[in-house]
Amino acid sequence: MTNVPPTPSGLRGAVDLSSLVERAQRPAGQPTGPGAAGPGATGPTGVPGAGVPGSETAGDLTVPSLVLDVTDQSFQDILQLSTIVPVIVDIWAEWCGPCKQLSPILERLTAEYDGRVLLAKVDADTNPQLVQAFQAQSIPTVAAVIAGRPLGLFVGALPEAEVRDVFEQVLQAAEQNGVSGRVTVDGAGVDTEAVEQGEPEPEPLPQHHQAAYDAIEQGDYATAIQEYKTAILQDPHDQMAVAGLAQVSLLDRLAGHTADEIRAAAGAGPHDVEAQLAVADLDISGGHVEDAFGRLLDLVPTVFGDQREALRVRLVEYFELIGAEDPRVVAARRRLASALY
């Protein structure tokens, strides 16, 4: 288990989410992050004011389901429930292919543990505060909350055996923190076998997307790049393939280089286009979007020919990663057009 946020190497098998991380537009004075809902708030747990941490005893709590849909407003309930049982947090989206592979595994294992763990599902598209609070730059992102404290677990879709190992580690960590209760569903427990039999099959990914995903899982970025390029040739409007290509290309360029090496080279060569492209990749991977844009846009008017084209291509790739509607992309695209034409 690792701390949130995930590192760039943890992006394998995940869909880029950086545009969503910065999309949160909060009203002035509104609290942010987990626990943003006010006192007395109710949520999908159906436990109004479920009690201050430590006020519930093991086995005394009934919930409507072991799998709960959670929002920015209702997350306070999850913090309270996490004082009784550990809560796994699944940050997902409807359009995310890897999410559709991972979510059924999380739900099936939650059912098997029969009240010793809860699963909180967070739709990344509609809950930007939680996305930001967990610093989820890619999805699926999976974390845990134990006694009100978040714990980063993993990013991307993992095989069921590995996810089961993560559940065991979470339960061990929870027990060490005095969280070892159990909840029941409507007072009658849960029929694990029925849940397993009724679990819908995840929608399969398109052929080349699946091949790219498998290659990323193996760390074979070159093959993943070719698979995404093939998908784009077959359908130039395949935006998931375009975004996937941009993401895996970034990972491929960063592979084998340390952050210290990249930053040292960029510091020694402020006008070295290759060195500045490399450190811009590092900025993007760390969520420093404006730094990356500014660095490359400052260089565009100072170079010509192949170097200027290399800067343009890299910036367009970043635009795909961050999202066309992001205000930083809009501003950067306008500035790039002005510098080029």
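the 2nd protein, sequnce then structure:
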Amino acid sequence: MNKENIAVGLDIGTTKIVAMVGKRNEYGKLEILGIGNAKSLGVKRGVVNNITQTIQSIQQAVAQASAEAGCKITDVVLGIAGQHIRSIHHQEYITRDKPDMVISEIDIEKLIAQVQKLNMLPGEEIIHVLPQEFKVDEEGGIKEPIGMYGRRLEASFHVVVGQSASIRNAGRCVKDAGLELSGLTLEPLASADSVLSQEEKEAGVALIDIGGGTTDLAIFKDGLIRHTAVIPFGGNVITEDIKEGCSIIEKQAEQLKIRFGSAWPGENKDNEIVSIPGLRGQEAKEISLKNLSKIIHARVVEIIDMVFSEIKAYGYDNPRKKLIAGIVLTGGGSELKHVKQLVEYITGIDTRIGYPNEHISGESAKLVSRPLYATAVGLMMESDINNSRSRLYVQEHPGNVKIQPKTEPLTKSTETASSNIQMNAITSDKSKQNIGDESNSEEQQNDVEQGTKEYIENRFLGKFIKAFKDFIDKAE
């Protein structure tokens, strides 16, 4: 199996770690080849707090996915979440030296590079710089400025920021698990890619991803990301409330929530009772399902109110008119019974459950037809996009790939320096490439793959990924 066609997403959540392997088929859909699940023991509210346990969980999930897929997993696209994530809105502009030439991708990159230089709070780093709308000279509301003429290029940006230590700890776990980090994506954006249609993003939609440790919000309008936020409460606090309210252990509370839990207490009758086995010979404990639903209801209402307040604080005082496509719920918490009806009751906005099967082929869709896999599917889709860019570059620029001579091994410092150089050097002496020498074909292919990988890091993954990788290498 050609490893270049394999896409791998890694979702490091508070309750679970999921590794998902897929491959695009001849119909343009992704086919799931393998899924690995492991209990997340070293993560709290989306942040790694135990490196060793997290590494072990990653290795377990990756090994399971690799065995199912029948291939070796070498690199992954990692999802980032947690209460340390915040977003800001920023406007930036550049003045072009040659307004008689059309605006190109280079101008967009210069503009994004300016935003990357923003001063953050101590210990913070920029994760994503997402252009929203452009303005060329005095003409605003432009979505795609490439090909236009103008001197002043301006844009509004959605900038996602996170704590450097938290992000690097997650990256360290991936690296120590024996994997390469090929991409870094905010988890609500990955979930949105897997469960939202382009029509919904155009009309206006709020994605609410209820995870184990956090609840993530992403608002889209006119096809663009408008706002992201992280609420530091998720399914785990519901479990904790059940544990305290019913005086049972955490494992029993989680099972109660999954099997009998409901966000709407009016459904249960007073005489509906469930029996919980006692510990070490103690008598069984009887719990009223109505009381259980009341406990769950109180916490879910709190979470929804916080998310709804965040939507209105963004500027949507009347979100029902602005969010024409309504609210889409996803994540493991959205599988709670009657949570959809409760969200509609509180917000007055049409709501649906988001299933990540739109971009997956028929048979494979059955494997991931649960909202809790939304993030992993989105990360796998991002990995596939990275692979497509890599293949496209090799096809369009076969002579531009930087080939390092094997006779002169590079030192570590030289490797780091050379990776900053874009691959635009073309070897003029064809005899030096040994094209006709079959003994060197494998080495050349490895060089091409390495060069392409460096190009993808420089061109598409941005300065943050590269700086992050350099930091990990220096730490070693």
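DSSP finds 14 helices and 18 strands in the chain. Confidence is low (pLDDT under 50) at residues 399-442, 451-461.
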